[in-house]
């Protein structure tokens, strides 16, 4: 175990994590020299755009902020607040991700069928069954992702405490709400890969027999996605572990 976890009332230096209790706001951190006010009154942490005014445009801008400038986003995120809009943000992204992932999965299933020994032409009733399957799977995935996120939040908090970091469950959960946006690029890439491959077979750009390249490409996407999700998660934890606000 790497030292005791600082208590919620401790003031930590945002830059190095040093305990600043009792030091005046106008002075500097004895450990790294950073201005103490940067960790307290001028921490720059506040509500997200979506929390200040929930709507479609703030949903898009907040999503872009998480995806394009994650370090800046989490460094500016107020961690000691429990604004309900964070959960709505996560819910909307979970919903979009569920639809995208299930669409990619169905595309993959159709590809398996098309390379099977006796592929058959799809009929209208098949499309209806697929559509039904699509919605049922999406709803199931939506709830499953919610449970998974809660479990991940609990686990991360436990692990950070083991390493002596002050990341209580509400803070981790708040970060994970915004982390949900990271599923969006993965879902989009997965759909592009799966459906463009199917389209290329359909129009005869590639033959049905070249499944190995597809399998490798898809495995590559899965591995890169896992690495991407982990990096985004790490960024969130790094930028909030010394937060006081
Ligand atoms: Zn410091």
Write a compact overview of the structure shown.
With 245 residues, the chain is mainly α.
Number of helices: 8
For the largest beta-sheet, the strand count, sense and barrel status come to: none
Head-to-tail CA distance between termini: 26 Å
What pattern of helices and strands is seen along the backbone?
HHHHHHHH
Q: Could you tell me which ligands this complex binds, including any ions or cofactors? A: zinc ion
- Strand fraction equals under 5%
Radius of gyration: 23 Å
Total domain modules: 2
**Could you tell me the number of beta strands?**
0
Structural class by SSE content: mainly alpha
Structural description of this entry:
By secondary structure, the chain is mainly α. It folds into 2 domains: 1-42, no CATH class; 48-240, no CATH class. It has 8 helices and no strands. The mean pLDDT is 93. Helix content is 63%, strand content 0%. Residues 13, 15-16, 18, 29, 31-32, 34 line the site of zinc ion (ZN).
């Amino acid at each position: 175990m790497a030292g005791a976890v600082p208590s919620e009332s401790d003031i930590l230096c945002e830059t190095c994590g040093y305990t600043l209790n009792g030091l005046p706001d106008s002075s500097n951190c004895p450990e790294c020299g950073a201005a103490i006010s940067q960790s307290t009154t001028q921490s720059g942490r506040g509500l997200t755009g979506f929390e200040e005014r929930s709507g479609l445009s703030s949903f898009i801008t907040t999503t872009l902020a998480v995806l394009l400038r994650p370090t800046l986003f989490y460094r500016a995120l107020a961690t000691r607040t429990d604004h309900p809009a964070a959960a709505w943000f996560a819910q909307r992204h979970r919903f979009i991700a569920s639809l995208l992932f299930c669409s990619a999965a169905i595309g993959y299933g159709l590809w398996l069928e098309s390379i099977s020994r006796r592929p058959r032409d799809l009929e209208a009733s098949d499309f209806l069954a697929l559509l039904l399957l699509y919605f049922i799977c999406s709803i199931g995935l939506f709830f499953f992702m919610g449970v998974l996120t809660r479990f991940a939040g609990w686990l991360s908090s436990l692990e950070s405490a083991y390493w002596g970091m002050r990341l209580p469950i509400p803070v981790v959960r708040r970060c994970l709400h915004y982390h949900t946006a990271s599923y969006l690029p993965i879902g989009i890439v997965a759909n592009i890969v799966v459906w463009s491959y199917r389209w290329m077979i359909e129009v005869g750009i590639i033959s049905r027999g070249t499944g190995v390249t597809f399998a490798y490409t898809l495995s590559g996407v899965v591995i890169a996605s896992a690495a991407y999700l982990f990096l985004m998660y790490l960024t969130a934890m790094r930028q909030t572990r010394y937060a006081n606000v």
